[in-house]
Amino acid sequence: MEITPVAYFHSPFPSKFGLPRQSGLSTNLTGHIIFEKKYRDPSALHGLEGFDYLWLLWEFSGNRRAKKSLTVRPPRLGGNVQMGVFATRSPFRPNNLGLSAVKIDRIDLQTAHGPVIHVLGADLMDGTPIYDIKPYLRDADAYPEARSGFADTVDWQPLEVDFPVRLRQGLTAEQVETLMETLRLDPRPPYQEEPERIYGMPFDGRDIRFRISNGRLTVVEVV
Questions:
Q1: pLDDT value of position 94
Q2: Cβ neighbours for 28, distance < 8 A, ≥ 6 positions apart
Q3: Cα torsion at 83, 140, 102, 125 (round to 10°)?
Q4: Which residues are the signal sequence here (predicted)?
Q5: For the whole prediction, is pTM greater than 0.70?
Q6: 142-183, pLDDT tens digit by residue?
Q7: Calpha distance 189→9 (Å, rounded)
Q8: Do residues 207 and 223 touch, judged by C-beta distance below 8 A?
Q9: Where are the domains of the chain?
Q10: Angle at the Cα of 58 from the Cα atoms of 53 and 63, rounded to 5 degrees
Q11: Does the CA dihedral 208-213-217-218 come out positive or negative?
């Protein structure tokens, strides 16, 4: 089977670094879906206004040349424990396919790019190819009592974030809120623990530079 994108995702994150590791973790993170020309017909979205969430089937396009393995090291386990790739949501997969549930913010049927779906909480970087879109069904897609394997055994604590007001100039209140929420998730690779290291996270045309020590992230510069 050959598949081609039906749409592309647009996000403030131009690269993988800093992206939430799962959809829904950064609830204020905005993004939008622009369809390829052959799918820019409002009739293709008829009925979608009645749903709150979507499933996106997409490609880990930043990993096309990455080495593949049958075992991976999940960040949830600190990046030091091997698990089978099919027992994880690792982005390093045999066919580079991702699956995310995202919240519909609004749908604009008439724009210069045809119908556009605006969503919240996606874990896709800018330019990500989307291969299919399906509505999320509450009765069929949610199993609140289901076990979650090793994710049930590991407690995760968000970071405290110090984002000085003087560094927020030029950012909207919405951008600041999104950044705070995203930075709490700890953008670093899980195996890195270097208190003096300055990390840079690209976000909406800016470079957010920070360091992390003892569970606290401090933004030191916005370029």
A1: 92
A2: 120, 121, 174, 177, 178, 181
A3: 40
A4: none
A5: yes
A6: 999 999 998 888 877 899 999 999 999 999 999 999 999 999
A7: 24
A8: yes
A9: 7-60+96-141, 160-222
A10: 140
A11: negative
